[in-house]
Amino acid sequence: MYMEIIGIDLGGTNLRAGVVRDGVLQPVVSRPLKARGSRLEVTEQIFGIIDEMIDDDTTAIGIGVPGLVDPVSRILYDVVNIPAINETDLRGILEQRYRLPVKIENDANCFALGEYHFGVAQPYRSVVGLTIGTGLGAGIINNGRLLAGKHGGAGEFGMISYLDKNMEYYVSGRFFEHVYKTQGEIVYRRAVEGDIEASYMYDDFGRHLGEAIKLVLYVLDTECIVIGGALKAAFSFYARSMWETVRGFAFQRSVPELKIAASVLPGSNVLGAAALHLSPRTNSRVNN
């Protein structure tokens, strides 16, 4: 069946959207987002970018948000970076305005769906997408289905206690600030130039990431882990120490068959938002 879906990635600083026609992403449009604006200002910006793209062939709208979505009430919550849309039924607002099916999901879940349908994870049925940026997010595809959890919060591995803090403290872009009192962008530039100290910092980061991946494996025994977010660009700098740590996983049979890769898919979050209409949620009791 012919499908033309508008996919939207609602970020903390930018609003990005694109039309996906039969699985092919058209050019993505990006607009600065008034993340600290009023509810009216934020929703008007969302309306504006949809109005640019919608036409008579549009069949659905999908949106990824940096927060959680209650599977039953559809209310958004814990949207830390865009407080104005907390505790709103954004889906209901959009469905009423555009008279089209709308699905909204956590942005890490959209990233995982984008990789599962269009990216490096296509050959696999069980996938975890790790988004490593300001924080650590995760989207879970289990046997071909998105695993959201009862309250929409499945995959929040970053909140699990680890060492003296939590996993996100050591496995995010802010690791370099927390541990080495420097910025990730500076470390990356130095590593590109061959700086030995920067290489050491990435080795350290890779070991912590390896521990996070072992945690994911103990819980989910997944086939494929895809790295997204700002830290994907530096994958080659920390891959070795990451794999050294992962090889210490207790169940050795799992390791040789495990795929770990950095995302190379342009617009994966936008594609994943559109793919919300291609993949059912695990919560089958909910008519999504």
UniProtKB/TrEMBL annotation:
Species for this entry: Chitinophaga varians
Full protein name: ROK family protein
Domain of life where this protein originates: Bacteria
Pfam families: ROK (PF00480)
InterPro entries: ATPase_NBD, ROK
Sections of the chain in a coiled coil: none
Similarity comment: family membership: Belongs to the ROK (NagC/XylR) family.
PANTHER family xref list: BIFUNCTIONAL UDP-N-ACETYLGLUCOSAMINE 2-EPIMERASE_N-ACETYLMANNOSAMINE KINASE (PTHR18964:SF149), ROK (REPRESSOR, ORF, KINASE) FAMILY (PTHR18964)
Organism classification: Bacteria, Pseudomonadati, Bacteroidota, Chitinophagia, Chitinophagales
